[in-house]
Design a protein that fits this description.
The longest helix is centred in the middle third of the chain and has 16 residues. A hairpin with a 2-residue loop joins strand 1 and strand 2. The protein is of the alpha/beta class. About 40% of the residues are buried. The strands form 3 sheets. Strands 6-7-8-3-9-10 form a 6-stranded mixed beta sheet, sandwiched between helices. A 4-stranded antiparallel beta sheet has the order 2-1-4-5. A 4-stranded antiparallel beta sheet has the order 12-13-11-14, covered by helices on one side. It folds into 2 domains: about 220 residues, Rossmann fold (3-Layer(aba) Sandwich); about 60 residues, Alpha-Beta Plaits (2-Layer Sandwich). Helix content is about 30%, strand content about 25%. It comes from Labedaea rhizosphaerae. Keywords: ATP-binding, Nucleotide-binding, Transport. InterPro entries: AAA+_ATPase, ABC_transporter-like_ATP-bd, ABC_transporter-like_CS, P-loop_NTPase. GO terms for molecular function: ATP binding; ATP hydrolysis activity.
Amino acid sequence: MAQAAPAPVALAARTRGLRKLYRGTVAVDHVDLDVPQGSVLGMLGPNGSGKTTTIRMLLGLTVPTAGTVELLGVPMPEQAEVALPEVGALVEGPGFHSFLSGRDNLLRLAAAEPMLAGKAIPGAVEDALARVRLTDAADRRFRGYSLGMKQRLGLAAALLVPRRLVVLDEPTNGLDPAGTREVREVIGQLHAAGTTVLVSSHLLAEVEATCTHVAVLHRGTVVAQGELATLLEAGSPALVVSTPDGDKAVEALRDKRIPARSLPDGLQVDLTTTTAPEVVAILVGAGVAVHEVRKQRTGLEELFARLTESGDAQPDVDGQEEGWL
């Protein structure tokens, strides 16, 4: 009996053939980007790779030279008035009136928010300030804020009302480690509530800790995208086996012409010519005590370096290898 085809993944944002030229210079070149609904997608890339330009085209702030954009199921920028009320965004740093306090800046924004009734505005502002831990500094003028405090206020503006999609361009810029952890907590809360989050960041450790999906841009195009776990596992065809019988295990595998090397608490097995079940069967058959078996994962930093240092690296959206590692 034929199996039914898997249901298509619902997308919060989608681009096809997206291209942007600035006076003959290619900033973004044929970007096909999928942002799955409910995901936390980290957009990574070196400076000048096209991250911010892509985000601006997603939000209708910049008109593409070519290609199409869909945001929450509607074309952009043609139906921006339909999609944007459901989107919170912090792009290229926050812009506020320097002579107003943080609270007054948010009150002005909230007054123009179509999804907020007048009576709900004060409460929404206080909730947003508390969420980014700016309540104590809410009455200080914006001009006196540190860079990190300005970033927090920009994040509060994006969170004035519940959103279906939140887009954050370098949200931890200027934040100390404690502030960075707080932003991580906010992203986790949004994800738990079912909100899709698209975050551009240069902090690979933060992306690895918070994101479910990644898209890596290089020279204006997407060189890899998909589930983070899948991409990391695809980069390392190796198995790590925890066992007290390391030497015995290595010998048993080498007898079967399977490359393996000892580790302090076990061994690493090359899976290029074999499979994980076959390795386990060989070890158990040889009387090796197998305590734990796991696939070796490439760190995001290593994966990012490999993808952006080679112009030929282009795995597909499912993270399958095409000569990229």
